[in-house]
Known about the structure:
Elements: H1 9-16, H2 37-51, H3 55-88, H4 90-104, H5 109-112, H6 115-124, H7 130-161
Amino acid sequence: MAKRGPSTARGKAAVRISAVKHGLRSGVPVIPPFESFDDWQDFRDGIIASYEPQGRLETELAQRIASLLWRLKRAVNYETEMTAHNIDDIPEDLAESATFRERFLKIPAQESVTMDRIDEMISGRMLASRDALEKVMRYESHLHRHWLQTHHELEAIQARRKGERVSSLTRIDVAGPPLA
């Protein structure tokens, strides 16, 4: 069976940042120029401090939580950017539509580009496209489940360390994906 993927160091380095298209699947904590390493460090340090971890395991779990929450913020930022792009495309889309209507339907451009039509397009684009929203919801759900599991595990470890009784009840994620 043939090996898939890059085999050279240069190819591997290029593939490593291929998720930068939207950053949702990126394994790196900071994606310049969209994010600042200083902002990431401040965020991470604040999250870790809020858990007051003791020992390597608790610190690792707190760092994992910080990473998951940072990536959740990235998903929200991606959704916001996709909505902004949808709205930014309105003038070009209106121009194309007016040109088509004028050329093929013989409707003058001034009749195609009206305030009502502009308002209608803005209203229809206040959310990101369906594909972008589905992508965001999928990643948000995935990251939220991992955050919740890690958060509960860290809480349980800290409670055991403090000599508190830890419930052995199974936790159920009721915010999972919708039923088909």
